[in-house]
């Protein structure tokens, strides 16, 4: 394993090296389209990104991340013949994003021309040593090294707009970086986002706090990374054609203890009834399909849940340890209409990618208190939605699909014309920065 990961790391290293050289020499020919959209990629010493990849198997409390570094962070393909499906670990969004921004058409080597400065720092990977490793008792230090670099090496780049034009990806919930500086040893997390010096920068995280400050949540990467329009279109045809043989699906773990919570209620409801009367004539529709993903068995194994998601009309997205779920996005890729139980799961998170005012057109919200304490049955609520309405909602889910997926780097022009999660995140960052004048 050690030698495999070294090889992977080296491959990645050389590829980045090659690309960065090529890209930074070249100035886009589409200057007019780039007005107000130039991005400068800050050159950081490799200890802030590539070197960190060699720690991919250092932390026994997390999975060994090494196999998932393949394909610039998309992970290994699910099987050899597939063109679009990978075993993607969402923690590696920092690599995925870095690789993708190298293809952004409006990069400039001159920070003075840039509207935004991207820091290719793998903050989440670096945080592992504070969260699980030897630096657990110095989590307030997370970011010190980066700050020294920014304030000492060409300090005018960082200072000209007091950090307002800088952004980075932190591929974990913002909560993991929000430990108060004064709590030592920490309860959980590092203090990166609590440092006043970083208050002005923008962090793209997988989940924002209840009162977000610097951060904006972006979709969790799923396993679907097509590289050309025909692959996306044929998948969408499959999603449309798929027979939805169950009303609702829950793919997840938890809910086994006696504590009253929404996962427990879902588990009880799903294991109680499995079949209802035939909807039309001969064909039975299952009320609830349950994919048990306890102990992380579904991570990196999308086949376990994608097929059931394709066969279900609705996908239940209850909060767990934290309010957001990767499964929200797996479900959207499968054309499975999300059912939310609190606004913190998506509506208050992904304002850039999933327009807040359109939520009721592509999702259902049932307050968790109604289910847990007031005896509302989820199946009753969903069955009361007319068929035509369900079909309309599914079409809206399918419309959202390109916006939340991460297409593969090096994609064809046709697919590049459809904005994906990275394109929308970049638009959002540029707009956020320019709105600060
Ligand atoms: C962190 O601090 C705790 C309590 O102060 C101590 O028990 C533990 O050994 C320390 N961990 C490390 C890695 O230094
Ligand atoms: C953040 O920006 C404000 C101005 O918008 C500035 O006064 C403040 O000093 C900045 N903070 C840091 C740490 O640079
Ligand atoms: C289980 O099913 C029975 C009969 O359909 C119903 O009366 C009961 O309320 C159900 N229990 C739960 C927890 O849904």
Automatic annotation (TrEMBL):
InterPro entries (UniProt xref): Exostosin, Exostosin_GT47
GO CC terms of this entry: Golgi membrane
Signal peptide: 1-24
Location of the protein in the cell: Golgi apparatus membrane
Domain Exostosin GT47: 34-373
Keyword Signal recorded: yes
GO molecular function per UniProt: glycosyltransferase activity
Topology within the bilayer: Single-pass type II membrane protein
Source superkingdom: Eukaryota
Chief localisation class: Golgi
UniProt feature coiled coil, ranges: none
Keyword terms: Glycosyltransferase, Golgi apparatus, Signal, Signal-anchor, Transferase, Transmembrane
Assigned protein family: Belongs to the glycosyltransferase 47 family.
Name this protein carries in UniProt: Exostosin GT47 domain-containing protein
Source organism of the structure: Brassica carinata (Ethiopian mustard)
């Amino acid at each position: 394993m050690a030698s495999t990961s070294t090889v992977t790391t080296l491959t990645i290293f050389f590829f980045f090296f090659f690309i960065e050289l090529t890209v930074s020499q070249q100035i886009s020919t589409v200057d007019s389209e780039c007005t107000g959209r130039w991005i400068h990629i800050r050159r950081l010493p490799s200890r802030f990104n590539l070197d960190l990849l060699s720690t991919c198997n250092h932390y026994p409390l997390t999975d060994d991340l090494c196999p998932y570094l393949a394909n610039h962070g998309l992970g290994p393909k699910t099987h050899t013949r597939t063109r679009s499906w990978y075993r993607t670990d969402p923690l590696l969004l920092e690599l995925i994003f870095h690789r993708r921004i190298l293809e952004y058409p409006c990069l400039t080597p001159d920070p003075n021309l840039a509207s935004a400065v991207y820091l290719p720092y793998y903050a989440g990977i670096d945080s592992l040593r504070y969260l699980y490793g030897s630096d657990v008792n110095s989590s307030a230090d997370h970011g010190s090294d980066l700050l020294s670099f920014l304030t000492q090496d060409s300090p005018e780049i960082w200072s000209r707009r007091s950090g307002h034009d800088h952004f980075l990806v932190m591929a974990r919930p913002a909560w993991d970086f929000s430990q108060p500086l004064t709590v030592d040893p920490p309860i959980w997390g590092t203090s990166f986002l609590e440092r006043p010096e970083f208050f002005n920068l923008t962090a793209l995280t997988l989940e924002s706090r209840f009162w977000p400050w610097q951060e904006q949540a972006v979709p969790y990467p799923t396993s679907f990374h097509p590289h050309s329009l025909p692959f996306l279109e044929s998948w969408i045809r499959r999603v449309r054609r798929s027979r939805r043989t169950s009303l609702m699906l829950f793919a997840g773990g938890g809910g086994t203890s006696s504590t009253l919570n929404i996962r427990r209620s879902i588990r009880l409801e799903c294991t109680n009834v499995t079949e209802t009367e035939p909807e039309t004539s001969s064909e039975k529709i299952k009320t609830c399909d349950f994919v048990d993903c306890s102990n992380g068995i579904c991570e990196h194994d999308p086949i376990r849940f994608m097929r059931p998601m394709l066969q279900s009309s609705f996908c239940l997205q209850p909060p767990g340890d934290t309010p957001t779920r990767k499964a929200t996005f797996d479900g959207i890729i499968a054309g499975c209409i999300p059912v939310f139980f609190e606004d913190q799961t998506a509506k208050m998170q992904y304002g850039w990618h999933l327009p807040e005012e359109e939520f009721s057109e592509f999702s259902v919200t049932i307050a968790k208190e109604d289910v847990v304490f007031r005896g509302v049955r989820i199946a009753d609520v969903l069955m009361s939605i007319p068929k035509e309405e369900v079909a309309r909602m599914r079409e809206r889910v399918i419309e959202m699909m390109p916006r939340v997926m991460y297409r593969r780097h090096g994609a064809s022009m046709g697919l590049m014309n459809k904005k994906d999660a990275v394109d929308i995140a970049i638009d959002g960052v540029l707009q956020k920065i320019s709105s600060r004048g």
